[in-house]
Specification:
Helix content is about 0%, strand content about 45%. It contains no helices and 17 strands. A hairpin with a 2-residue loop joins strand 15 and strand 16.
Length: about 190
């Protein structure tokens, strides 16, 4: 039986401008990463290199986004349900999604995430984003499905794709199983 990777549309996403560390620890914009590239991840207290199986692109409204501030200056724009590793709590998101495959707890100001060197970095602010000009405007967001533990570093902070890659028979996944329909483009930078 032939197998194919099935990827559901991921709603746990990040701004395309987010730097992601490749296998050489060089930052690459998330929107420039392609299937087959290699990124740095984390598994059981050590760095791992994972192959990108799928890059997803989705669109969300501004009210689904937040800006996380870590330490004094590290920022990440993410959907509110995107999971980040928090010491003592495991995977957390600003607004946990009960339907998500990866269960998360609530991410709060004061929590400590992990950076690429394994050090703790504190969440110092969580800001909701909003669009003053057009509340229905859609913004492009991206996610990576990677082999292995499903982890990678967004702006140097450990996060998870929100799901694990699964292999199923090709007959069960259909021709458009992992495709996203793009309606219109807006820039997240306009919200910040």
């Amino acid at each position: 039986v032939a197998t194919a990777l099935t990827v559901l549309v991921l709603t746990e996403c990040l701004d395309g401008e987010t730097p992601v560390l490749n296998q050489d620890r060089v930052p690459v914009r998330l929107c420039e990463i392609k299937q087959g590239d290699f990124v740095l991840g984390w598994n059981k207290r050590r760095s791992v290199v994972s192959r990108v199986l799928k890059v997803t692109r989705n669109q969300v409204t501004a009210d689904q986004l937040c800006r996380l501030v870590l330490g004094e200056s590290t920022t990440i724009i993410a959907t509110k349900n995107h999971p980040f590793w928090v010491d003592g709590k495991k995977w957390c998101s600003v607004v946990p999604d009960e339907k998500a495959e990866l269960k998360t707890e609530v991410l709060k100001v004061g929590d400590y995430c992990r950076d690429v060197s394994g050090k703790k970095v504190q969440i110092t602010a969580i800001d909701n984003l909003k669009s003053d000009s057009d509340p229905s405007a859609l913004f492009d967001v991206f996610n990576l499905v990677v082999d292995g533990p499903g982890t990678w570093f967004a702006n140097g902070v450990l996060n998870h794709s929100g799901m694990y890659a699964k292999r199923v028979s090709k007959e069960n996944c259909g021709s458009n199983a992992s495709e996203n329909v793009l309606l219109k483009r807006s820039k997240i930078a306009d919200l910040v």
